[in-house]
């Protein structure tokens, strides 16, 4: 019996279609459609609305929260230099979380109906439509839900007075990640560092998608051996 290959209709809501691709999903999702007009995800206007976010909503919502958490450690008796170090460590830890999530969760291979569907919602949509400006940052409602387990895990690992600054630093790292990610796709950098970072990230999208998982830096790619090869090094082999 010949199984007919499923074809996604890009003119209809995508989320509940992609699961039918089965094993073909992996290849389909990594064939990007470069357009600033994003697809429709859901029939429901409510759920569709929750998937669309302007980039500036992220700092507007979360920077005051960051400030409150970091200042809490000062109110609990720590000096400003101590709190700055704690927040900086929180940012550093976030960069590892950023790398780990991107490499091991966002790029997990799926083939079941619900596996494909969930993966598309989490990250697959971004690879399929990398220039969709309204789906480049993480929805604040989803972030708020995920913050609760992170907060409680951190409380188990640190003291009551250091937890807020560490958590605030990690949250600041997340804000920096989301804003940087948007800029790498839609900004036009003139300085060398952001230019290289943009090239590095777009290389992940359009050339070597199983390497280059860092967004805000390539540090962890270097540490864990997932730094993509350059064209020059490939030619010299």
Describe the structure.
- Its main location: endoplasmic reticulum.
- By secondary structure, the protein is mainly α.
- The chain is built from 10 helices and no strands.
- The chain is globular.
- The termini are far apart.
Core attributes:
single chain; about 240 residues; mainly alpha; disordered C terminus
Beta-strand share of residues: under 5%
Detail the poorly predicted runs.
232-237
SSE arrangement, N to C? HHHHHHHHHH
Mean pLDDT: 93
How would you characterize the largest beta sheet? none
Query: What is the count of helical runs?
Result: 10
In total, the number of strands is 0
Helix/strand-derived category reads mainly alpha
Helix share, percent = 55-70%
State the end-to-end distance.
46 Å
Q: What Rg is obtained from the alpha carbons, in whole angstroms?
A: 20 Å
Shape: globular
Give a quick precis of the structure.
This protein has 237 residues and is mainly α.
Write the layout of secondary structure elements.
Elements: H1 25-29, H2 45-50, H3 57-75, H4 80-105, H5 113-128, H6 140-157, H7 163-186, H8 192-206, H9 219-224, H10 231-235
């Amino acid at each position: 019996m010949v199984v007919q290959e499923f074809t996604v209709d890009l003119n209809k809501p995508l989320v509940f279609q992609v699961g039918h691709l089965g094993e073909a999903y992996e290849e389909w999702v990594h064939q990007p459609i470069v357009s600033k007009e994003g697809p429709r995800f859901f029939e429901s206007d409510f759920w569709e609305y929750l998937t669309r976010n302007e980039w500036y909503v992220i700092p507007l919502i979360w920077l005051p929260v960051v400030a409150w958490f970091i200042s809490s450690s000062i109110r609990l008796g720590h000096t400003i230099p101590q709190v700055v170090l704690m927040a900086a460590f929180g940012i550093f830890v976030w960069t590892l979380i950023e790398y780990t999530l991107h490499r091991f969760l966002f790029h997990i291979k799926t083939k079941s109906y619900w596996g494909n569907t969930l993966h598309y919602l989490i990250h697959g949509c971004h690879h399929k439509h990398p220039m969709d400006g309204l789906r480049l940052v993480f929805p604040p409602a989803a972030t708020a839900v995920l913050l609760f387990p992170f907060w409680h895990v951190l409380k188990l690992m640190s003291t009551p007075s250091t937890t807020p600054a560490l958590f605030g630093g990690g949250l600041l790292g997340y804000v920096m990640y989301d804003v940087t990610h948007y800029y790498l796709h839609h900004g036009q950098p003139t300085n060398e560092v952001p230019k290289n970072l943009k090239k590095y990230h777009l290389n992940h999208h359009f050339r070597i998608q199983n390497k280059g998982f860092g967004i805000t830096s390539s540090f962890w790619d270097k540490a864990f051996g997932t730094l993509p090869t350059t064209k020059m090094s490939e030619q010299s082999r």
